[in-house]
Amino acid sequence: MIRPWIIDTTLRDGEQAPGVVFSNTEKIDIASLLADAGVNELEVGYPAISHDERKSIQKIVTLNLPVRLTSWARAKWQDIEDACTCGTEAVHISFPVSAMYLELMGRDYVWVQQQLQELVPRAKKYFSYVSVGAQDATRADAELLESFVLDAEACGADRVRVADTVGIATPTSLIGLIHRLKSVSHAALEFHAHNDLGMATANAYTALEAGCQAVSVSVTGLGERAGNAALEELAIALKLSGKYETSIDTRKLSSLCTAVSKASGREIVDQKPVVGKSAFQHESGIHCAALLKHPLSYQPFLPDQVGRNGHEIVIGKHSGSASLQHYFSGKGITMTRGEANHLLALVRTTATEKKRALQPDELEHIYNTLLVKHG
Ligand SMILES: CC(=O)SCCNC(=O)CCNC(=O)[C@H](O)C(C)(C)COP(=O)(O)OP(=O)(O)OC[C@H]1O[C@@H](n2cnc3c(N)ncnc32)[C@H](O)[C@@H]1OP(=O)(O)O
Ligand SMILES: O=C(O)CCC(=O)C(=O)O
């Protein structure tokens, strides 16, 4: 079994989602829940933001959670100095590597090299683990990126983050990129995904397949723009793979996502994989008839594996007689398939008129109407 290193960045990139602010108490709760769920490392914040940010990180450090805590910093000594006051075991130093980012900052690769040479050894005096980031790596010149990985390794960096900052990677392009970097260097690689093309989780998974040792994710995928790779999606995908083993207890994912959704003010959309309301809801007759015989017939895993209560059968336009028999037997009413089919016609027309699934009182009304009609 391969044991990937899972880094959660809900408290750093997650909080960078527009309009999201976690209170210090919420940060402590989220960090504790993440540690309890078995995540390996928490990117716990960006100390240079403010005194208050540093205080919240210091507080999390005092909890002595069984995870590595990492502070984020730009390639600037002042940021690293701010991180030093927080007491985290690790620091992550982010460098621009694409032509566009270097130009916007008025820098070139010589400056990147100089900063690596100056900052990494200096940071190593204060932190037992130093990670460096290649920001906008997927739009960078591939040769320059190779040099960055080699230079970072030579300066003593413990890990190099390959960041798909604007979320343009695809699984295929990523395999090529990671293989290329691995062919020139033995540095430990981390991949950091963004979801602009809806591929963040697939890309995080693919990065591990391609040989990255670590990936960064966030709870519910909360993060800049369309967000990051979702912790809960990746964790269950790795579990189902039969090839990866993580320390994450997937049964804790549902409550973790609920806590982050509440603290961030971002509702979990119904069709969200793993934790969305409809992720384990079924209406289609063919699916429900099979699900009543075997819960894995139309679900990839059981709801309780991710801390959910169970699947739900919804009665609506697409229902079949097996669903209706099941529903009414739960109300103490036994009906034949023929009787269920009579009901079904009225269920379909009512659901079509209302353009939605039916509620218990509506189903009771339909049942009573037919009962009176047919004696
Ligand atoms: C892809 C990512 O997620 S990157 C992380 C993004 N996160 C954040 O921005 C966190 C919140 N940000 C903040 O609180 C503020 O922007 C601060 C404290 C970081 C900086 O604030 P300010 O000093 O007012 O600068 P401002 O935000 O306007 O501009 C960013 C500065 O960082 C510099 N910068 C950007 N990336 C890097 C880097 N990797 N290394 C060094 N410097 C960098 C820019 O060149 C610019 O410098 P300049 O002011 O000399 O032109
Ligand atoms: O840490 C880094 O270097 C990259 C940060 C990031 O969030 C990104 O590029 O998307």
UniProtKB/TrEMBL annotation:
<dbReference type="GO" id="GO:0019752">
    <property type="term" value="P:carboxylic acid metabolic process"/>
</dbReference>
<keyword id="KW-0535">Nitrogen fixation</keyword>
<dbReference type="InterPro" id="IPR013477">
    <property type="entry name" value="NifV/FrbC"/>
</dbReference>
<dbReference type="GO" id="GO:0004410">
    <property type="term" value="F:homocitrate synthase activity"/>
</dbReference>
<dbReference type="Pfam" id="PF22617">
    <property type="entry name" value="HCS_D2"/>
</dbReference>
<comment type="function">
    <text>This protein is a Fe-Mo-cofactor biosynthetic component.</text>
</comment>
<dbReference type="InterPro" id="IPR000891">
    <property type="entry name" value="PYR_CT"/>
</dbReference>
<protein>
    <recommendedName>
        <fullName>Homocitrate synthase</fullName>
        <ecNumber>2.3.3.14</ecNumber>
    </recommendedName>
</protein>
<dbReference type="GO" id="GO:0009399">
    <property type="term" value="P:nitrogen fixation"/>
</dbReference>
<feature type="domain" description="Pyruvate carboxyltransferase">
    <location>
        <begin position="4"/>
        <end position="254"/>
    </location>
</feature>
<comment type="similarity">
    <text>Belongs to the alpha-IPM synthase/homocitrate synthase family.</text>
</comment>
<keyword id="KW-0808">Transferase</keyword>
<dbReference type="InterPro" id="IPR002034">
    <property type="entry name" value="AIPM/Hcit_synth_CS"/>
</dbReference>
<dbReference type="InterPro" id="IPR054691">
    <property type="entry name" value="LeuA/HCS_post-cat"/>
</dbReference>
<dbReference type="Pfam" id="PF00682">
    <property type="entry name" value="HMGL-like"/>
</dbReference>
<dbReference type="InterPro" id="IPR013785">
    <property type="entry name" value="Aldolase_TIM"/>
</dbReference>
